[in-house]
Design brief:
By secondary structure, the chain is α+β, with helices and mostly antiparallel strands. Helix content is 44%, strand content 21%. The N and C termini lie far apart (55 Å). The strands form 3 sheets. The protein has a 4-stranded antiparallel sheet with strand order 1-8-3-6. A hairpin with a 2-residue loop joins strand 10 and strand 11. The chain contains 10 helices and 11 strands.
Length: 249
């Protein structure tokens, strides 16, 4: 006997097959959210109809401050920085979002200002996002709680990043913070960081490009790194870890 439509969906408002992608292991976090939403869109025509896919190249604005008030976004591939600017045009990366992140919470409360008017989203590399308009966002979050769960997971990770950044600012000098950032950016362990400009590093640290360039030149003189156009090769990762106060337990 064929199961009813109600039986095919679980309490999170997603197909049972989607639930299995996320429920058994909460440590999957945003990766699990992305998997579950992908299955949900494949199996639920109503959900699919309300979502559009948009793609952006590295450096492009994914969502302006106004757009973050009007639309909900689900990051499906690539990374996105949430950037805050001041009146002088200085930029500060307040969060880096990974695939599966749900953002644009302003769309849940249309008509009121719930997001910072100085914050926008920018593509770190080529990205794909799902976009849900404000007229659908609230109802869809109620109908498909996996969206709200993903939003809460994203919020938690954003707060953790802010907390770590504040701790670094309080207890580390800029060379120490830059050393830590370089080690973090070497995600694949090859020692080669590609496509990251000195300005992008400055944005992550909340300082000026000239300051970052000066510290990098000092690192180069010490034999810690080699510098090229949008390319940094880490020569002595252990010394960078020592400078940054990173210990392998």
């Amino acid at each position: 006997m064929k199961a009813s439509t109600r039986d095919q969906f679980n309490a999170f408002g997603m197909p049972a097959t989607a639930a299995s992608a996320i429920m058994p292991n909460s440590n999957q976090r945003l990766s699990g959210v992305r998997q579950a939403l992908t299955v949900l869109r494949d199996e639920d025509p109503a959900f699919d109809k309300s979502v559009t896919t948009q793609r952006y190249e590295r450096g492009a604005t994914v969502a302006s401050p106004d757009a973050l008030e009007e639309r909900m976004y689900v990051l499906m591939s690539g990374k996105v920085n949430l950037i805050c600017t001041n009146n002088e045009g200085r930029r500060l990366v307040i969060a880096t979002l990974e695939p599966g992140a749900v953002f644009g919470e302003g769309a849940l409360d249309s008509g009121s200002t719930t997001t910072d008017p100085n914050v926008f989203a920018e593509a770190v590399d080529d990205v794909a996002v799902w976009v849900i308009p404000s007229g659908e966002a609230r109802n869809m979050t109620m109908q498909y709680p996996i969206l709200g769960w993903g939003l809460l997971q994203t919020y938690g990770l954003r707060l953790l990043q802010v907390e770590n950044s504040l701790e670094d600012v309080a207890y580390k000098k800029l060379p120490e913070r830059l050393a830590t950032l370089l080690v973090e950016l070497d995600e694949d362990g090859t020692g080669v960081i590609k496509g990251v400009s000195h300005q992008a590093l400055a944005d992550r640290l909340g300082t000026y490009r000239e300051t970052v360039s000066a510290i990098l030149r000092d690192f180069k003189r010490q034999g810690l790194v080699e510098l090229g156009y949008r390319r940094i090769r880490i020569v002595d990762v252990e010394e960078l870890k020592e400078i940054g106060g990173i210990w392998d337990w």
